[in-house]
């Protein structure tokens, strides 16, 4: 059971964009970045895996939240597409928020006094937490956060691009 949960946590982003990855070999570098080698702490226990998962969820949520501030023209430019379908993009975003909420809740069971562990009851709570999250609690965590941000933005861009190209 432990290995199954660990695999599910490690593949959070991958599960949301597996079709994109399968259809675009050029994105293979994203697969390599999901091994958590940049996470500043040893992943030696369920608690450490859960902490890393909460951090990754919050970084992805932060990227997702930032994408929502873009207007149609901004999305077209960011995604490199001539036209966006806002309905498809909203649908993908809603699904991502629900998946992030489930993953955060699963990784937050019994996490009293651990990093990144405020109680989150709803997507609205997760959105608030992500808006304030920086990951900058130590120099090592700050380095992880800066690298993680780019990976999650790329993964999100691919999901949104897929929503436009294959609604």
Automatic annotation (TrEMBL):
Q: Where is the signal peptide?
A: 1-22
Keywords of the record: Signal
Q: What's the protein name?
A: Polysaccharide deacetylase
What taxonomic lineage is listed for the species of origin? Bacteria, Pseudomonadati, Pseudomonadota, Gammaproteobacteria, Pseudomonadales
């Amino acid at each position: 059971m432990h290995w199954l949960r660990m695999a599910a946590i490690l593949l959070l982003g991958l599960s949301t964009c597996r079709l994109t990855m399968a259809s675009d070999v050029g994105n293979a570098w994203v697969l390599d970045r999901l091994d958590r080698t940049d996470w500043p702490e040893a992943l030696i226990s369920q608690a450490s895996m859960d902490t890393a998962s909460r951090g990754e969820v919050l970084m992805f949520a932060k990227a997702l939240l930032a994408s929502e501030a873009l207007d149609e023209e901004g999305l077209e430019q960011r995604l490199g597409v001539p036209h966006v379908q806002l309905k498809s993009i909203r649908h993908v975003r809603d699904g991502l928020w629900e998946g992030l909420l489930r993953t955060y809740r699963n990784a937050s069971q019994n996490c009293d006094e651990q990093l990144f562990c405020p109680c989150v009851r709803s997507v609205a709570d997760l959105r608030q937490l992500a808006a304030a999250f920086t990951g900058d609690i130590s120099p090592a965590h700050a380095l992880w956060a800066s690298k993680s941000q780019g990976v999650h933005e790329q993964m999100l861009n691919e999901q949104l691009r897929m929503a436009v190209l294959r609604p």
